[in-house]
Design brief:
The protein is built from eleven helices and ten strands. It starts with a strand and ends with a helix. Helix 4 crosses helix 5 and helix 5 packs parallel to helix 6. 35% of the residues are buried. The chain folds into two domains: 236 residues, 3-Layer(aba) Sandwich (Rossmann fold), CATH 3.40.50; 51 residues, no CATH class. It is an alpha/beta fold and 288 residues long. The longest helix is centred in the last third of the chain and has 28 residues.
Length: 288
């Protein structure tokens, strides 16, 4: 479990804090979307989770390991892997298999175990058969899958994505998001930093940040259904939420609609009610 207690962080003494009094727990197997406007503190927060940054005040524990203890940093960074927006910045090998083997190789594992981890990781992300390819011949989406495979070969408990899907084409983005959902089912925790509210809908839990603080923490449906609040923070609500908000004046249901399928059921029901009302009104008029 990740435990954050009274975390505050300031980049420079004369600047306001980038993070202020954050308290948070993240359990195994959670799929979390971390959202907020630019400058809200998202990137600063996640860089504390694998000790790239250390608290100005407060404590962070990763499965009982305190990030302030430098002797624990290697193990913390094995447990907490990060995928960044530009996968080129994470490529270290001359071939796909060499790139994936880099991390477990630094753990001084036996060569047979490294090979097993590389094969398993490539299979999990759908890059089996790419072993001898140069990473630089891969597409942007394949490079991001390669970065994910490199993390999986380290056997992490937590994977953080910092806008890792923002520059991908729709097909590649869907592949990455589907893999994240599969990884969650294996017990790996996913923390996905995103500005895309459609992507955030896939998460079970959403953390909303503003001015260095977490101002909302709850199920995706509860947070992402607050269209006006999201807009006030400079975020675009999910398209389906925007649609149902615009239809709200025409029917009195208060359901939380967060998918196209749910919206279709609701709209069909609404249209059926209108049709029945019109039919009954016409029948009454004929009787008169």
């Amino acid at each position: 479990m990740i435990k954050i207690k009274n975390l505050s962080y300031t980049y420079q003494p004369h600047l306001p804090p980038a993070l202020l009094d954050i308290n948070l727990s993240i359990g195994r197997g959670e799929y979390i979307a971390l959202i907020g406007a630019n400058g809200s503190g998202k990137s600063t927060l996640i860089r504390h989770l694998n000790a790239l940054l250390l608290p100005s005040r407060g404590e962070i524990e990763i499965d009982g390991l305190n990030t302030k203890e430098s002797k624990d940093h290697i193990e913390i960074r094995r447990k907490v892997g990060m995928v960044f927006q530009n996968p080129d910045h994470q490529i270290v090998g001359m071939s796909v298999e060499e790139d994936v083997a880099f991390g477990p190789g630094n753990l001084n594992l036996p060569s047979t175990q490294i090979r097993q981890r590389v094969n398993k990781a490539l299979e999990m992300v759908g890059l089996k058969g790419f072993e001898k390819r140069s990473p630089y011949t891969l597409s942007g989406g394949e490079k991001q899958l390669l970065a994910l495979a490199g993390l999986l070969a380290m056997d992490p408990q937590y994977i953080i994505l910092d806008e890792a899907t923002s520059s991908l084409d729709p097909v590649s983005k869907e592949k990455v998001l589907n893999i994240l959902e599969q990884l969650k089912d294996t017990g790996i925790s996913i923390i996905h930093v995103t500005h895309n509210m459609e992507e955030a809908l896939r998460a079970h839990r959403v953390l909303l940040m503003d001015q260095g603080q977490i101002i909302a923490d709850g199920p995706a449906g509860d947070i992402l259904n607050q269209g006006e609040k999201l807009k006030a923070l400079g975020l675009s609500p999910p398209i389906i939420v925007e649609l149902m908000c615009r239809l709200q004046p025409y029917y009195d249901r208060q359901k939380c609609i967060l998918s196209v399928d749910q919206a279709a059921v609701e709209i069909r029901s609404w249209l059926k009610t209108i049709k029945e009302f019109n039919h009954n009104s016409q029948a009454q008029a004929r009787e008169i």
